[in-house]
Amino acid sequence: MEGKHSPKHAPPTRSSRRAERPERAEYRRAPVREREYDPSPEKMSRRNRPVWQLIIQDILLTGLVLCVFATFHHVIPRLTAKNVQMPTPSSVINTPAPAETPAPEDTAEPENTPEPTPEVIDNRTEWQKKFEEHFTDEVIVTENSYTSPNVSITMSTITIDDPSPTVCYVADIYIAQIENFQTYWANGQLSYYGEESSLSMAANSGAILSINGDYADNQRSGFLVRNGELYYSDQTTYDICVLYYDGTMETFSPSEYTVDDILAKTPYQVWKFGPQLLDEYGQPRQSYNTSDAISWENPRSGIGYFEPGHYCFITVDGRQSGYSRGLEIDRFAQLFADLGCTVAYNLDGGQSAVMTFNQQVYNQPYLGGRNSGDILLIRELPESTEGGEG
């Protein structure tokens, strides 16, 4: 029996092991297949270049590719779009655009070009605008009327049968401005007992319409203003009538005003005769600041006020049996109230009550009338007789 350590089972030596595995040793040492070698210059050059050069080369190639792409994708389409003609507003409505022509040397407007419309400026006064239906573009005169661009006067006759006939002459007046309403002194100036006929004063002053005034030629005191000029500035026991530059009119009893207060409001005319005829409601007063002789039936003259720019003159014939009796003061006041006046004032009367119109005595004065010291008048201003604002 073979033992564990018999020569048959002795461990092999190194040399014996090599001899026993010759084929294995030959397999391990089989030659490795070598790669094919390309000796081209390009590959030799690229292999020999540094890495940083290769990176730069790749970047440049990438940029070139991007430039070519941008050229075909952006630049060429934009250049093509510039040559495409877009539609104009005229082509939208199928109207061909007008051909451009060089501007002519002559700068004159074409014959068919309409002239520009000039701006219309209204130079009329406020009263002309307000009462335009009463004025006319030209002067028109009839037996009982006068109209122009600045003055409108309509004459009428009222007969009051109470208890016997009394004839009253009424002038309805519209004016363009306050200066169309003036006063005029006998002989052209204030003088003590200076006298002149109403018809002569009307002619000398250019009056279209006139009535006698307030017997101012016998006054040496009191409160007196004419056409904006102050003559006397004393408090008086008479009722006064004040016409202001704005065209308003007021009447006052002696206790209702002071001279300074009136002057502070710039009066245009102040008359002193009276009495005032209407109360603050435009109705006849309950009592009158005057004497009995003046209160009785008499020929009369008076002035009435409707609103600025609108007035009336009234002259009443009297003391003529069978024709005209005359009016008491309260009945005279009622006449103004019936006409719609808000203010009314009694002027001098009796034989002095004279009305002129168009250079003629319009009423039938008692005993033919008499000379007086002043008149109230309506007239055209010299520069406004052809129309427009004076």
List the helices and strands and how they pair.
Elements: H1 14-20, H2 22-28, H3 41-48, H4 51-82, H5 89-92, H6 126-130, E1 140-142, E2 145-147, E3 151-161, E4 165-175, E5 181-185, H7 198-205, E6 207-212, E7 223-226, E8 229-233, E9 240-244, E10 249-252, H8 259-264, E11 267-272, H9 292-295, E12 300-307, E13 310-316, H10 329-339, E14 343-346, E15 355-357, E16 374-379
Antiparallel strand pairs: 1-2, 2-3, 3-4, 4-13, 5-16, 6-15, 6-16, 7-8, 9-10, 9-11, 12-13, 12-14
How would you sum up this structure in a few lines?
The chain is an alpha+beta fold. It is 24% helix and 23% strand. It starts with 13 loop residues before the first helix and ends in an 11-residue tail after the last strand.
Number of strands: 16
Q: Tell me the strand order in the biggest sheet.
A: 1-2-3-4-13-12-14
Cα separation of the termini: 173 Å
- Give helix and strand order, one letter per element, not per position: HHHHHHEEEEEHEEEEEHEHEEHEEE
The amount of beta strand, in percent, is 15-25%
Number of helices: 10
Low-pLDDT parts are 1-9, 22-30, 77-96, 385-390
Find the structural class using helix and strand composition.
alpha+beta
Mean pLDDT reading: 82
